[in-house]
Amino acid sequence: MNLWSRELAERFRSFVYETAADAKLIIRALSMVNALLAIILLVIAYGFYLSDIEKELVFDFFDIVFALFVILYIAKLVYADNWWRFAWRHWYETILVLFLLVNVLLNLLLNKRLLAELALFLEWESPRAFYELILSSYLLLWLFLEIGRSGHFISRLNTKPSTLFLLSFLLLIAVGTGLLMLPTFTKGPDSMPFLDALFTATSAACVTGLIVVDTATYFTLKGQVVILVLIQFGGIGIVTFATFFALFAQERVGIRHQSLLRDILSTENLKSSVVLLRQIFTFTFLFEGLGALFIFWAWGSSVPFESLWQKIFYSVFHSVSAFCNAGFSLFSNGLYEEGVRSAYMLHLVIAFIIILGGIGFGTWNDFSIKRLRERLEKPWKDWRISTKIVVYTTLFLLLIGTVVFYALERHALLRDMNTMEALIASFFQSVTTRTAGFNTVDLSQMRVPTVLMFIGLMFIGASPASTGGGIKTTTITVLFFAMIDSIRGKKDLELGHRRIAPEVISKAYTVFIVAVVYNFLAIFFLTITEPELPVLSLIFEQVSAFATVGLSLGITPELSAAGKCIIILSMYLGRVGTLTLALALSTKVISTNYGYPTEYVMVG
């Protein structure tokens, strides 16, 4: 008997070895088909109004998806070199399978009574709805896992990083548009019109905040969740998310993939790109989590919430929207809503979350515990010059914006506030104008000089490698000092005892000129498509869209179809960057090992 068992085990190992290559391909193909089926089921279950019989049928198919998932996991376990090592390395998938098996046992042995008790404890409306939510959550977790599994395919794409970055946002916008058009995602009797859905999805994915419909009243909770997810993915970048899930799922990230990530994150080398990726998610979830807690505390009693869950959701939504500099709000009038406009502690909390998101992940890397410890041990080590530029320029612009807004509007918009309230309101507008898009005052009542100042601050925007837009603080700083040194006759630009590379200055000029030219052309066409609207409002709207700010003087819903298309393009280009688009469309010079005779052209 023992000999027969050994022979059977040997035959089994031989069969596994001989069929491993084909089996892995089949497993991978079935996993992709199963993932596609899961996506379709989720869309049908939550995007359409179903009868009880239809819903029951859909969730029966859910069980088939889960069963196939468990079978495929067992198959991968069989073909693994070491079962325990595979289960440990793929711990996330292993835990998910155990959850599914426990869920089956609960269904068979306890007839879901435990889930019903849990639903009752959490004050859920219906045990059945809670059970469906649990299944859907399992499905979403598994889909995120599959995203991680597929993340390494990015490295096989023979395309430039700039092109991949552009396409990733187009994909995110397309998915968001389709979801927002589903019947159950809006409160009206009809689905959301395509152009309005495209505008909203682009605004959310590009973390802008311009809206053609009222987010608070037009969308159901499902639609608001979709907008929240679009903001989160758009703020960090879908390629960055795909890489993170690949690392989370314990998949290897190849050299090509790391190279793509280095170019997208603008890091110095391959190793630092993966390190920065981990820090991005650490900082993001840490700041958004802490932000949600502080916002939850800062609501006070002035905002009446229907339930604890609604208060939690509003806190999370506004924290994510603030950190990603998106400017979306669940109040019809934004933060100018009655009861919210006077919550000054809330305004300060949101303002600091906006600053954290707009200062840039590369800058936060210099403030990490590791870097701080290094500077304590080696006091001669200083910040990177880019960090100094970001910090000092940000502080300078915040101060200028606050002082000028206070001076211009103290006896106008701020006349009904005391000195402290007026200073907080001025500080908040200075912060939010730098690509966040929230407002605590009626912007349509601003004086013309204030509007012009806002346009300038919006055009500059946030810092590189952040969730904000604009031409960036480093660009305007480099251009300013390059101009000063040019006037003084200096050959090289020096900042912080460092010589700035000529290609950096050239890139800054390119970004500035392309941004100015594009905005001029967009404003020119807007004056043609929107002849009835004030020119200053159109300029404000266009710069706000291009800089992904989201502030408006109230004309967004009044735009024609052509005007909306121009603003959609501006939001997209503002998020991905005009220079990124140029790099994606351009062809690299084959050789530069030659030079023409020098000639001087009269300038000025």
Largest sheet: 2 strands, antiparallel
Number of strands: 2
Strand order across the largest sheet: 1-2
Shape label: globular
Overall structural class, as computed from helix and strand content, comes to mainly alpha
Q: Spell out the helices and strands N to C.
A: HHHHHHHHHHHHHHHHHHHHHEEHHHH
The proportion of strand residues reads under 5%
Q: What's the pLDDT, averaged over the residues?
A: 81
Please give the share of residues in helix: 55-70%
Radius of gyration: 27 Å
Q: First CA to last CA: what distance?
A: 98 Å
Structure description:
This protein has helices at residues 2-47, 52-78, 83-89, 91-109, 113-121, 127-150, 161-180, 194-205, 215-218, 221-236, 238-248, 255-265, 270-298, 308-323, 344-358, 361-366, 369-377, 385-409, 419-432, 448-460, 473-488, 502-529, 535-546, 561-576, 578-585; strands at residues 494-495, 498-499. The protein is globular and about 95 Å long. Helix 4 packs antiparallel against helix 6 and helix 13 packs antiparallel against helix 15 (344-358). The protein is mostly helical and 604 residues long. The longest helix has 46 residues, at 2-47. The chain is built from 25 helices and 2 strands.
